[in-house]
Amino acid sequence: MKTAIGLQRGSRASKSIVGSEIWFREAFALPIETPNFTRRVMDQIDLQFDRPNPADLLTRLELTASSAGITGVSFRRGRGKTARTEAGPIGHILRQAREELAEYLAGDRTFFSVPVELSQVPEFERAALEIASQIPYGEVRSYKWIAERLGKPDAARAVGGAMAANPVPLIVPCHRVVKTNGGLGGYSFGLIQKEALLNLERSTTPYVGCASTRIVCRRGCLHERRIREGGRIHFATLADAKTGGYRPCQVCRPA
Amino acid sequence: MPDSNETIFKRVQAGNRAAFAILVERYQRRAFAVATRLMGNRTEAEDAVQQAFLRLYASRASYDPRWRLNTWFYRILTNACIDSLRRVRSTVPLDGREFPTADTPERAMLKREQEELLRAGLAAVPVEARIVLTLYYGEGRTYREIAALRGTAVNTVKTHLRRGRAALRKALRARGVDGP
Questions:
Q1: Which residue among A174, A221, A249, A252 is the active-site one?
Q2: Which own/partner pairs from A210-216 qualify as long-range (CB within 8 Å, at least 24 positions apart)?
Q3: Which residues numbered 130-169 in B keep a CB inside 8 Å of some CB on A?
């Protein structure tokens, strides 16, 4: 049966015959509304055109914590005061996180041991973030890869949403999640920052072995710090280290 | 009288980032209409439009104020769309995101139908012809303007327009719609 949209009355959108010149002009001219777009573009411009050096990121990070762990890592716009110091267990967690983030951004750390608290995050998002935090340093996985591990292979876009809503970027490495076609996808700190982080990770060897003890650590481990300069052996993978006769450290447990 | 786009962009060139927001405000509705026709999908269209604005900002130093900013921007926009069309392998169907509108429900429904028909029809039209159709019908650009911003001859534009129109009508007929 043929539809007769073109013959209905009462509206500008309906008077013209489908496929006619007038219909073309009307249909092509329909505006598309997208709320808050200007702000989003300007945010991206701020992020992308203000120095994308990972180490600079540190001065603009704002951290929040509960007594159970870090609850938020966010990007502070413009210049502001440094966060006031907090006492007690929360202060301890905040200090530890700031220290680990500083080391991470300087390429001296490949993992985080500070606890994170995601109890305020909805279940699906939390599950997606937990899978993302298993992606090894220096590697990337696709949104689809996470969706598959969640048992929802068609939910890649929803995984994208979960990554975008990650309350603790960097610590939960949502920057290691990219598009299946090789595109970078999105990033709350800006795509240039995402690329800079991935470059940093690609150019940092994640494992360091001690030539005298024959123990291999993750970069950033307390024991890794103690290895003398002359005895440091760098490994790209744990398998390489094991082949070389190194055993994993009991503290940082590289796996 | 409000400042011309060119005047505003000169301020951006001089380092006034906030002035750029005015241009984003002015261009976005048209840019979305163009990108949505070309991409056939709102999410992808949003990405492309955002890319286009970022490229426009990044290219501020190489812009010559003697050029019309419109032409410059539409060229960047269509190229951004083509780039992401190349990246997106499969076409994802139009997502059902709804935005608040001032229309009556009946009128909004008619518009949605028209929108959906156009989207389905355009999917059958080759990309270059899709660009020409969109700029000609949606943006009211002349053959000469389209030729300038796509970097082709005027006759090529006419050919794309003719073929595009025919392909679009054929696709609309295939969907069981009466037409000329």
A1: A174
A2: A214/A245, A214/A246, A214/A247, A215/A246, A215/A247, A215/A248, A215/A249, A216/A241, A216/A242, A216/A246, A216/A247, A216/A248, A216/A249, A216/A254
A3: 133-134, 137-138, 165, 168-169
pLDDT at B40: 83
- Kindly list the distances between the CA atom of residue A252 and the CA atoms of A58, A202, A220, A225, in Å, as whole numbers in the listed order: 24, 20, 9, 12
Tell me: pLDDT of B152 over 80: yes
Higher-confidence residue of B109 and B155: namely B155
Q: Considering only CB atoms, which chain A residues are within 8 Å of B115?
A: 27, 30
C-alpha to C-alpha distance for A206 and A229, rounded to whole angstroms = 16
Q: Which of A44-58, B92-106, B152-166 has the highest mean pLDDT?
A: B152-166
Q: Region A171-199: what's the mean pLDDT? A: 84
Residue with more model confidence, A31 or A178:
A178
3-state secondary structure of A142: strand
* B 73-132 → A contacts, CB under 8 A: 87-89, 99-101, 106-107, 110-111, 113-115, 117-118
Instruction: State pTM to two decimals.
Output: 0.52
Cβ neighbors of B139 (< 8 A, separation 6 or more) are B30, B34, B74
Query: Which residue on chain A is closest to B113 by alpha carbon?
Result: A5
Q: For residue B88, what pLDDT band results from cuts at 50, 70 and 90?
A: low
A59 alpha carbon, distance to own chain's centre? 18
Higher pLDDT among residues B179 and B76, named by residue: B76
